[in-house]
Xylose isomerase
Amino acid sequence: MGNVITGDTEFFKGINQIKFEGPESDNPLAFRWYDENRVVAGKTLKDHFRFAGAYWHSFVGNGGDPFGAPTHVFAWDKKSDPIERAKDKMDAAFEFLTKMNLPFYCFHDVDVVDYGNDIVENERRLQALVDHAKQKQAASGVKLLWGTANLFSNPRYMNGASTNPDFHVLAHGAAQVKAALDATIALDGENYVFWGGREGYMTLLNTDMKREQEHFAKFLHAAKDYARKNGFKGTFFIEPKPAEPSKHQYDFDCATVIGFLNQFGLEKDFKINIEVNHATLAGHTFQHELQVAADAGMLGSVDANRGDYQNGWDTDQFPNNLNEITEAMLIFLEAGGLQGGGVNFDAKIRRNSTDMKDLFYAHVGGMDTFARALITADNILQKSDFKKIREERYASFDSGKGKEFEQGKVSLEDLRAYAIENGEPATISGKQEYLENIINRYI
Ligand code: XLS
Ligand code: NI
Ligand code: NI
């Protein structure tokens, strides 16, 4: 555990560093499962997860919604000078991260400091905060998991950034990405994310989809080439989401993104950042998306949150569904974990969660959910017959004609002959309920 780092003011007064106390603890501000030093499947929980706090939800998001004004009024959001205000916010962020024992953080450029419409002035502001962040990182040991540029909030991006029909807007997006990459590199950021909220369309009536996607690829190549030229060794992540704010987003889901990366020669530098609630919006489960990415060798990072069964949008609630996360951790462990990334809490406390402590409860719950799920998944893999049952379903491909088929040695005529020779197949149970019970038994 590192030290708590505060600035001149302590923003989260009366809250000490969150410690592991074990499952018997009644302390709501203690971990019951997340013991960062506990070794599971050969690695500490700290190293498995590389948990990160998300700047935008925790220190910028203010509880405002389309129907009402902000409900979260922050003490670090008071000063009139944008750089001084941003420094207070960063002091608060590092106080929270270190009290929460989060080893990483993630940001968009505009989360760190407010941007106007003057590119050079924006670069100056971001640079000032990079200098401040360097000191904070050095003092605390907290690291930057990934940086990104917000290419969706400013009105100029209403028709997209890299996929905007107007080249002039695309160039503004590029200027912003350049500065965000410079900041990420200066802060030893381990990865860089592209989430294309407006890289898509509202209607095909005014959209040349093929051309826009080609521009998207060119843009990503330019960003990648610039970063590599300037010493960035980390991984680029694409974060899929099917819709919202665009009606249709080009990075719809993992399978779509993998196809795109392969088509445009980006597959060596890019992997995927999977968000739980985006998976469900795409009509998949989180587990499905993890498996698709893992099978392609592209399981890079995770944005942790959860959706709401009643809603068709990104509610970004904190993870607390043990069943869902345990199933996900089975895939995570079998894939050998994440490639370069970590588990970033892209989640926000509710509009009516207005105590300073609520942000801590939220992260305690999320970190404990992942820890408990990973421990459970490891037990399932070690002690139950879960893997054996799955393997046995495919036993007919382990020898004889089945094996030859996998080796590409069997023709369609051979298959017909085999079917005739062996008659009608016996029914074989998939044992779904049995397997579901295993999950609950080990939780
Ligand atoms: C929005 C996305 C966003 C990305 C970063 O739905 O999840 O927060 O993670 O731009
Ligand atoms: Ni996200
Ligand atoms: Ni999201």
In short: The mean pLDDT is 97. The two ends are 27 Å apart (CA to CA). The CA atoms of residues 194 and 238 lie 5 Å apart. DSSP finds 16 helices and 14 strands in the chain.
